[in-house]
């Protein structure tokens, strides 16, 4: 065990370990809830949640539902990117849910009322998301309005507005919008042969690779460009960034614009496949944006990590559909995701704990001089960090 | 018109109760973004209590027991926020958001489980408490007086006195302004913050109960409380963290929320033929505008949102 100390102290490994702890604990607590509700079917239900498309015995059906999970993972990836991008700049973009709604409204209306092609629809969805994000950004930068509160307000405003707008393009007899495949097939994103890979699942389109490409782009922007560095510096210390000549107000607005665009695009990646229609009588904001929060934090705020975590979250969300409905409700997977977010709050504690464990061992091994007190601040215990101020 | 007044007062009661909760928590130094989830859990506790109340229980017992259970549920749930944010120094925004999502998900799972255990065909997320609800109402010549209105006023006065006139309240506020200074004169900051969060849980739980029993006729738990926890935070900011101002802010916001319930009763509003969605949006739009104008000179407690660490000075 002693020889593993360096591995335990490596940041990437710690992040991975913390996320795994969150997932395992989250699933375990979810299982306990199931046990409390009805002990007999609990094991079957939790297995169903975790199995999702493995529920189907045959290969092609499995691939088909694997494809469906991926189709819904793409928007989730975009939402989690939106949240992690803003979070790197010190902003909590809970408005991603509303930006997602705005994107959905924009692309569906453009597709069904104006009969646009898929690309303009996608761009309009991005613009709609950016508009909402931009409002939050302006309010934050110039009026000092907390972005969480303005985001929540905009979520509800967006929901009611989109309901009103999309009522114009809904089926006469149901609350759902007209199917894009029937109303305007050219607004469906091309599948580029991908549907063949997934058991002829016609909803598998270029949306999935597009989301992966965007994730890589966000990673490059944040970690490898000056622009990304400036944004992260603003997030770490707004005043220091201002002192160093960075325009912190502009950075806040730009960040939320980008965050909004990402979430808006996420909606387009879902609705332009035709897998779902919008229900114009919805009375709650779709959970995609909120699940994005879970995915972003579970992915350790790393774009590549969020690809994996988004898939996991969507996997269990879809898996919730396979539980025995006479015993449990499918919201059990929402419960598990929310427990996971709650546990993500403890990640800092896990890391500090691991660091201090490692620190103590190192002290006893190498250091004869008096021990520095551990400083459980954000960057963990560094040997020199003990006597700040 | 009486209907508008009635709904305004009831929504204002919800908002002021929850905003007072947020206010106490923030004065102790913890931003309680989980109020929405706390409201749902408090509402769930109260609703279940009402459901299992035997038919014919006297109104007084119904009122007292239901309120106590809602408060208890809110307090227990808010301790999840307290333990992570105070003792483990977790990010208050993340934990608050998690509590909101968990509250709705847990309430839906529990209510559906109860409903389907009673009747396998019942997959709704509603709880029946029609007759129990009547215990809270007193009819005063067309105006339905609700006991919760009185409770909200009492809570308002109580919180104002507690914050400004008692040793506990002043110490609590010190922990939100300058916890290190408070600690140096022997105040246990962690204990004070726990107290702040738990009281906000009690008020939030009570507010949730008021919302589902009086604000709306039937409640689907999968909808949470429709952003009321956040509207309450807007009320609190607009009220500049002061109980008296919070009361006025709550009345204003309550009125706009009430309009969406009763606008069809006004001839000139009904004649304009505006979709109901517009009225639903109104409270949120107003709160955005109000926040834009009032947040600049914010009097927020200075140390709110920063976990207290004994080691840092």
- Which parts of chain B are unreliable, with pLDDT below 50 for 5 consecutive residues or more? none
- For the termini of chain A, the CA-CA separation is 35 Å
Arrangement of strands in the largest sheet of chain B: 1-2
The shape of chain B, in one word, is globular
Classify the beta-strand content of chain A into a percent band.
Answer: under 5%
Kindly name the structural category of chain A.
mainly alpha
| Name of the level-1 CATH class of chain B | Mainly Alpha
Mean pLDDT of chain A: 82
Pair with the biggest interface:
A-B, 55 and 57 residues
Name the assembly state: heterodimer
Structural account:
The complex is a heterodimer of chains A (389) and B (313). Chain A has a domain at 58-324: ABC transporter involved in vitamin B12 uptake, BtuC (Orthogonal Bundle). Chain A is built from 17 helices and no strands. Chain A is mostly helical and 389 residues long. Chain B has 313 residues and is mostly helical. In chain B, strands 1-2 form a two-stranded antiparallel ribbon. Chain B is globular, with a radius of gyration of 20 Å.
Notable traits:
A: 389 residues, ABC transporter involved in vitamin B12 uptake, BtuC, 68% helix, disordered C terminus, B: 313 residues, mainly alpha, two-stranded antiparallel ribbon, 13 helices, 3% strand
Strand-helix topology:
The complex is a heterodimer of chains A (389) and B (313).
Chain A: H1 5-9, H2 11-37, H3 42-51, H4 59-88, H5 96-113, H6 118-143, H7 147-166, H8 180-183, H9 194-197, H10 207-224, H11 226-236, H12 238-243, H13 248-271, H14 288-298, H15 303-319, H16 332-344, H17 347-366
Helix pairs in contact in A: 2-3, 2-16, 2-17, 3-15, 4-10, 4-13, 4-14, 4-15, 5-6, 5-7, 5-13, 5-14, 6-7, 6-13, 10-11, 10-15, 14-15, 14-16, 15-16
Chain B: H1 2-28, H2 35-51, H3 59-87, H4 92-118, H5 130-133, E1 137-140, E2 143-146, H6 147-165, H7 167-177, H8 179-184, H9 189-215, H10 228-238, H11 243-262, H12 267-272, H13 276-294
Antiparallel strand pairs in B: 1-2
Helix pairs in contact in B: 1-6, 1-7, 1-9, 1-10, 1-11, 2-3, 2-4, 2-9, 3-4, 3-9, 6-7, 7-9, 10-11, 10-13, 11-13
């Amino acid at each position: 065990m002693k020889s593993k100390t360096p591995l335990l102290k490596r940041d990437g490994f710690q992040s991975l370990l913390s996320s795994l702890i969150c997932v395992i604990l989250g699933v375990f607590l979810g299982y306990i809830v199931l046990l409390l509700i009805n002990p007999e079917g609990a094991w079957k239900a939790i297995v169903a949640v975790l199995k999702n498309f493995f529920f189907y015995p045959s290969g092609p059906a499995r691939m088909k539902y694997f494809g469906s999970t991926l189709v819904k993972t793409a928007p989730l990836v975009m939402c989690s990117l939106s949240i992690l991008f803003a979070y790197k700049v010190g902003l909590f973009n809970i408005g991603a849910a509303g930006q997602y709604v705005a994107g959905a409204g924009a692309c569906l209306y453009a597709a069904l009322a104006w009969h646009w092609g898929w690309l303009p629809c996608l761009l309009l969805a991005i613009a709609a998301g950016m508009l909402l994000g931009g409002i939050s950004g302006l309010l934050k930068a110039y009026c000092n309005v907390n972005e969480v509160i303005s985001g929540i307000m905009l979520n509800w405003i967006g929901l009611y507005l989109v309901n009103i707008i999309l009522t114009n393009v809904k089926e006469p007899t149901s609350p759902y919008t007209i199917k894009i495949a029937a109303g305007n097939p050219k607004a469906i994103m091309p599948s580029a042969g991908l549907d063949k890979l997934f058991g002829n699942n016609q909803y598998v389109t270029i949306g999935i690779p597009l989301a992966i490409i965007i994730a890589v782009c966000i990673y490059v922007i944040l970690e490898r460009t000056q622009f990304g560095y400036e944004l992260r510096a603003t997030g770490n210390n707004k005043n220091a960034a201002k002192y160093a000549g960075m325009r912190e107000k502009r950075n806040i607005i730009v960040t939320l614009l980008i965050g909004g665009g990402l979430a808006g695009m996420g909606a387009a990646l879902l609705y332009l496949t035709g897998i779902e229609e919008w229900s114009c009588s919805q009375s709650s904001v779709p959970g995609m944006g909120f699940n994005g929060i879970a995915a972003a934090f579970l992915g350790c705020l790393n774009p590549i990590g969020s690809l994996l975590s988004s898939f996991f979250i969507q996997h269990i969300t879809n898996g919730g559909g396979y539980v025995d409905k006479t015993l449990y409700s499918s919201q059990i997977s929402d419960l598990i995701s929310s427990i996971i977010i709650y546990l993500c709050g403890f990640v800092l504690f896990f890391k500090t704990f691991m660091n201090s464990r490692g620190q103590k061992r190192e002290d006893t091994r190498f250091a004869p001089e008096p021990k520095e007190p551990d400083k459980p601040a954000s960057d963990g215990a560094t040997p020199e960090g003990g006597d700040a101020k | 018109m009486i209907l508008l007044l009635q709904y305004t007062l009831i929504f204002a009661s919800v908002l002021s109760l929850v905003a007072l909760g947020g206010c106490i928590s923030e004065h102790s130094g913890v931003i309680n973004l989980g109020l929405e989830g706390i409201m749902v859990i408090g509402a769930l506790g109260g609703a279940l209590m009402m459901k299992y109340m035997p038919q014919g229980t006297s109104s007084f017992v119904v009122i007292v027991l239901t309120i106590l259970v809602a408060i208890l549920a809110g307090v227990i749930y808010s301790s999840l926020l307290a333990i992570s944010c105070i003792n483990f120094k977790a990010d208050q925004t993340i934990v608050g958001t998690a509590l909101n999502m968990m509250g709705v998900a847990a309430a839906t799972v529990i209510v559906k489980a109860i409903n389907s255990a009673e009747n396998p065909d019942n997959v709704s997320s509603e709880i029946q408490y029609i007759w129990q609800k009547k215990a809270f109402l007193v009819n005063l010549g067309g105006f339905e007086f609700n006991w919760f209105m009185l409770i909200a006023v009492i809570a308002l006065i109580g919180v104002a006195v507690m914050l400004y006139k008692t040793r506990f309240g002043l110490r609590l506020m010190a922990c939100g302004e300058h916890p290190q200074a408070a600690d140096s004169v022997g105040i246990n900051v962690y204990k004070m913050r726990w107290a702040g969060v738990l009281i906000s849980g009690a008020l939030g739980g009570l507010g949730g109960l008021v919302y589902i029993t009086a604000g709306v006729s039937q409640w689907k738990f999968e909808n949470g409380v429709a952003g009321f926890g956040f509207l309450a935070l807007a009320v609190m900011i607009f009220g500049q963290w002061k109980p008296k101002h919070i009361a006025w802010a709550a009345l204003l916001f309550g009125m706009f929320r009430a309009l969406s319930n009763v606008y069809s009763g006004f001839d000139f509003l009904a004649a304009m033929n505006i979709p109901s969605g517009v009225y639903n949006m109104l409270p949120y739009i107003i709160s955005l505008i109000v926040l834009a104008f009032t947040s600049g000179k914010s009097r927020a407690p200075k140390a709110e949102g920063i976990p207290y660490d004994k080691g840092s000075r």
